[in-house]
Amino acid sequence: MPLHPVHRRSVPDEVFDQVLADVVDGELSPGEPLPSERRLAEVLGVSRPAVREALQRMAATRLVDVRQGGATLVRDFKRSAGLDLLPRLLVRSGTLDAAVVRSILEARLAIGPAAAALAAERGGTTLAATLTTTLDDLAATDDGVQQQVHALAFWDQVVDAADSVVFRLMFNSLRAAYEPALEALAPVMAAEVGHVEAYRVLTAAIAAGDPHTARVAAQSVLRPATTSLMEALDALGSAKDER
Asked: What is the average pLDDT across 201-213?
């Protein structure tokens, strides 16, 4: 477990990230005990309360099992953790994890159309005016970051209309992972968020209460950027393999 002293503050966040990296990279295996709280504090060069807070966060996200008076054991995060861990998995040590990015894109392309179909069933005409106002705001700007902000607002309204607590929580987690990268993703997302007419077709289908058309229209909205990002990930992977 190649830990190194912590220099930046917030300290518990840094402790969390270091242990998370070792868990995800397989340096720490499921069932393996962490060093004692005292030892972690010594190696990391931080206080025991900071280590304790980090361990409590890890237990809350089901990365570890903290046993009162006993060892803290690593859990199999792929079987125990929830979507609240997603933003931390996306960027580790300042680098995007390509596998996590791919998973987010796949989930986005699956969840968006399903939420749109439910919104058409449950929101219908009551949602049309709200979505249209959001799309007018989207059409009024050429700024790539602001376009993504308005597009997120659009999908937030669609998910509300879908009236599914599971989709809501999934959307919240995907948005939390996506929002920090708005600026970096602006060039790739331009083909999607700049195509306002595709959003208007989707809005019309939702307003008409047509789930099938809403699902197809949502796929048309989401697929261009998904394809571009997938191709970019494949190109990056090929470039790394050639080195």
From this structure: 96
CA-nearest of 165, 162, 137 to 214 is 162
pLDDT digits (tens, 9 = 90+) for 47-103: 999 999 999 999 998 999 988 777 889 999 889 988 888 888 887 766 777 888 888
Two tokens, residue 5? 């002293």
Task: State which H helix or E strand residue 111 sits in.
Answer: helix 98-122
Beta strands in the chain (DSSP E): 64-66, 72-74, 91-92, 95-96
- Under a CB-based contact definition with an 8 Å cutoff, are residues 231 and 105 in contact? no
Token look-up 């050639």 returns 242
What three-state secondary structure class fits 33? strand
- State the angle between helix axes of 211-242 and 182-193 in degrees (0 to 180), rounded to the nearest 10: 130
- Least Cα distance to 130 among 155, 111, 148 occurs for 155
Q: Which amino acid makes up residue 56?
A: Q
Grouping H, G, I as helix, E, B as strand and the rest as coil, residue 4 is coil
Q: How many residues does the chain have?
A: 243
CA-based nearest residue to 178, from 85, 83, 116, 90: 90
Residue written as tokens 């950027």?
225
Q: Does the pLDDT value for residue 113 go beyond 80?
A: yes
Of 12, 44, 208, 228, nearest to 126 by C-alpha is 208
> Global pTM?
0.78
Residue reference for tokens 């659009």: 154
